[in-house]
Specification:
- The two termini are about 45 Å apart.
- Helix content is about 30%, strand content about 20%.
- With about 500 residues, the chain is of the alpha+beta class.
- The strands form eight sheets. A five-stranded antiparallel sheet has the order 6-5-4-3-7. A two-stranded antiparallel ribbon has the order 1-2.
- Bound molecules: adenosine-5'-triphosphate.
- InterPro entries: Kinesin_motor_dom_sf (IPR036961), MYO1-3_N_SH3 (IPR057535), Myosin_head_motor_dom-like (IPR001609), P-loop_NTPase (IPR027417), SH3_Myosin (IPR004009).
- One of its GO terms (molecular function) is microfilament motor activity.
Length: about 500
């Protein structure tokens, strides 16, 4: 318990240090007449708002109300709604019509509307239940195992409701287990905020519906303006398709750039950030978050490709920036049980643009690399890709110079019974990496030094020790480090000294 607490404190402090240094740097660079930079992070553990109710009760939409700092026009119910267009998705006409449900956001105060009074709450209260029964509207019904089924309420008795499910069954459930469902017309809508009911099953259903249609991006067009100068822009939900969905490439880049396409997409998000930066002359951030395997790395690459296409010039620097991905992935990604290409580090990529909107530089900061993976692997996982790539892809000459063997001959790599990844050619990846190293202009000498160090690490893993002298000392078992009877480490001018004493054993690497 103590260990995990202190480890999380360490992690937090490392991240916080980085944010703090960015904040300080922003402050130093910021002209004096501008408002203060980012507020410091609150110490308290702020709770996220309930997923059932995204907007506060006092929130009103009538005529031209200011929606959290942005203007949102129109009324709800049976009228068309015009949403603000400062978003990347340019949603203008909501599809809501007479068939639409009367309730659009939790609290609607529209005295001008002449349609039937809508149920106001996300939860089914007495009036709402009567309304839902009368209109035979769909509800979500929570099943004993936690999943949600669509149905219609037939009758209620006290706190219990009898619901006819879409699969033909009729079941009795507590009314608290029912949530209103959206009308069919909102099926697969691209902006979640346009859902009449923004409850958990409705959101999940919408995501699932879009996913089955290969529409992997869903927007949440809610712009938040905090009391300070900070603004959280639109939210994009990306569902990992685990296949090629053919929504990327030059044609899509131009279509989003020229606003010929306005459906949610990471291109649209990057475009919005770029435009905001150019218009407001202010730094912009895209934060990509999600669990392992969610698609963060891919999404970051797609966003970078779009920005490179937008801000590319004749300098070719955008290509160098894109090539860094191959290098970072080779040295910092590995196969885990959840993701064949899992990033085992965090990264902060800064792309610098000139006043003309052209890319003029980039800084990539990495942090929290999982170093233990080099020496210890869980079953069916791999160490960092670079080790396997080096063994599989290096030329015969290089192999000879490094006295390199196949990956399966190294303990650090063979301990997990996982040497290859289905569908991945490590040799090809190594050639791709060499090209990337050339593009960023790393000299061949430096490249070889890096490969030598990698080979040395692999050989080091093959060394074992024997206990001598009544268990007070250990000795390296000779002939193990390279399998050819040469004392370990000698080929590369690498000498290994081991002492067993207090402080704990030290291994000195002397490179000569
Ligand atoms: N937009 C996409 N299109 C096609 N495949 C994708 C897409 N996004 C992710 N994938 C697939 O999912 C895999 C995992 O994605 P990715 O490595 O980006 O996840 P991650 O969130 O960065 O995971 P981790 O936190 O473990 O690094 C990718 O290797 C790729 O096969």
């Amino acid at each position: 318990m103590m260990l995990s607490a202190s480890m999380s404190a360490l992690t937090r402090s490392s991240l916080e240090e980085m944010l703090e240094s960015l904040r300080k740097r922003d402050e130093e660079e910021r002209p004096k007449d501008l408002p203060p930079a980012l507020p410091s992070r609150p110490q308290s553990r702020a709770r996220l708002p309930s997923a059932r109710r995204m907007l506060p009760n006092s929130f009103k939409v009538d005529g031209e109300n200011n929606v959290m700092g942005h203007r949102r026009k129109g009324s709800f119910g049976c009228k068309k709604v015009k949403l603000h267009v400062e978003s990347p998705y340019e949603v203008i006409e909501e599809k809501v019509s007479e068939q639409s449900p009367p309730c659009v956001v939790p609290t609607v105060n529209d005295s001008s509307t002449d349609c039937e009074a809508p149920p106001q709450s996300e939860e089914l209260e007495d009036d709402n239940v009567a309304y839902f029964i009368k209109k035979k509207l769909h509800v979500w019904c929570k099943q004993p195992k936690g999943q949600w089924e669509l149905g219609t309420i037939q009758s209620t008795s006290g706190e219990e409701a009898s619901v006819s499910l879409s699969n033909g069954n009729v079941m009795k459930v507590a009314r608290s287990e029912l949530l209103p469902a959206n009308p069919d017309i909102l099926e697969g809508i691209e902006d979640l905020i346009q859902l009449s009911y923004l409850n958990e099953p409705s959101v999940l259903h919408n995501l699932q519906y879009r996913y089955t249609q290969d529409m992997i991006y869903v927007g949440l067009l809610l712009w938040l303006v905090f009391p300070t100068q900070s603004k959280a822009g639109p939210i994009l939900i990306a569902l990992n398709p685990f296949k090629d969905v053919k929504v990327y490439g030059n044609d899509y880049v131009s279509a989003y750039r020229q606003k010929l396409l306005d459906s949610p997409h990471v291109y649209a998000l990057a475009d919005a950030a770029y435009n905001e930066m150019m218009n407001d002359e202010a730094n912009q951030s895209i934060i990509i978050s999600g669990e392992s395997g969610a698609g963060k790395t891919e999404t970051a690459k797609i966003a970078m490709q779009y920005l490179a296409a937008l801000g590319g010039g004749c300098s070719g620097i955008e290509d160098e920036i894109l090539q860094t991905n191959f290098i970072l992935e080779a040295f910092g990604n590995a196969k885990t049980s959840r993701n064949d290409n899992s990033s085992r580090f965090g990264k902060l990529i800064e792309i610098h643009f000139s006043a003309m909107g052209k890319i003029c530089g980039a800084v990539v900061q990495t942090f929290l690399l999982e170093k233990s993976r080099v020496v210890q692997l869980a079953l069916d996982e791999r160490s960092y890709h670079i080790f396997y790539q080096l063994c599989a892809g290096s030329s015969r000459d290089l192999k000879e110079r490094l006295n390199l063997r196949t990956a399966s001959e190294y303990k650090y790599l063979n301990q997990s019974d996982c040497i290859t990844i289905d569908g991945v050619n490590d040799a090809k990846k190594f050639n791709r990496l060499m090209k990337a190293l050339d593009v960023i202009r790393m000299s061949k000498e430096d490249q070889e030094l890096v490969f030598k160090m990698l080979a040395a690490i692999l050989w080091l893993g093959n060394i074992s020790f024997k206990v001598t002298d009544n268990e007070n000392h250990i000795e390296v078992v000779n002939d193990e480090g390279n399998g050819e009877g040469v004392p370990c480490g000698q080929q590369y001018g690498l000498k290994v000294y081991i002492t067993l004493s207090y402080p704990p054993p030290l291994i000195h690497f002397v490179y000569d």
